[in-house]
């Protein structure tokens, strides 16, 4: 709990200081960032849109994010109507189709849609529908889906609360939402603050400021468990389960220095029960009318 308390203390001190407010993120900048490099595609050097290219992307994703399988539970949604918000390169989207779900997918960028179209061709699979669309304005009627799934997406959009409201809106009563967002009070966010604030001689900068400016696209956010619960109170949901997961970003497995990896391993072990993991998974049911 010590690290978690430290994270809260640092953020509390920052909030008491006078800092310029974060700029309102531009949807255009989010679009440009992800349209240039679809999420996960940088981990393959194979010819684009070939089967080896897609296999590389899939192998890498599930080797570093094994939490996806236990959270998504793809095979439990056979025959169900599933919407994935933010399909990216389509790796999880393929699992819904392979599991027999009636799979619909949206993404902000045409490049992501192009990836999944090519991927479906390569694997001889068929989706119900895929289209370019904004998570803040989902183009489906109320109460449409048995499940809406979104992994690591809505923390990138400017109005995450609006995206969450849209997700709840299109779930049918009794249906389920499964979402992952980044966790502000995590080891990963703490490391970023050390690099970009503390060791950069500007320790007054907040975790939020560091994430906004240095975590993937400009404007990326992360949330605390309390913040997510507060948002969900305004929506017709029940049986809310929120959990943080220690990830390769917390253990520093990706780091090229042995000392850093060892430090990440030790801290992750020490604080493994302190809810300081980088992935924050959120599961809920939509209330029945």
What's a concise summary of this model?
The chain is an alpha/beta fold and 289 residues long. The chain has helices spanning 2-16, 27-36, 51-64, 67-72, 91-98, 110-123, 160-170, 187-198, 207-214, 225-232, 248-251, 258-270, and strands at 81-85, 102-107, 129-132, 145-151, 171-182, 237-245, 279-286.
Structural account:
With 289 residues, the chain is an alpha/beta fold. The chain has a single domain (2-12, 23-286), classed as Vaccinia Virus protein VP39 (Rossmann fold). Helix content is 43%, strand content 18%. It contains 12 helices and 7 strands. The chain has helices at 2-16, 27-36, 51-64, 67-72, 91-98, 110-123, 160-170, 187-198, 207-214, 225-232, 248-251, 258-270; strands spanning 81-85, 102-107, 129-132, 145-151, 171-182, 237-245, 279-286. The chain has a 7-stranded mixed sheet, with helices on both faces. Strand 4 (145-151), helix 7 and strand 5 form a beta-alpha-beta unit. Helix 8 crosses helix 9. The radius of gyration is 19 Å and the shape is globular.
Q: What's the arrangement of secondary structure elements?
A:
Elements: H1 2-16, H2 27-36, H3 51-64, H4 67-72, E1 81-85, H5 91-98, E2 102-107, H6 110-123, E3 129-132, E4 145-151, H7 160-170, E5 171-182, H8 187-198, H9 207-214, H10 225-232, E6 237-245, H11 248-251, H12 258-270, E7 279-286
Parallel strand pairs: 1-2, 1-4, 2-3, 4-5
Antiparallel strand pairs: 5-7, 6-7
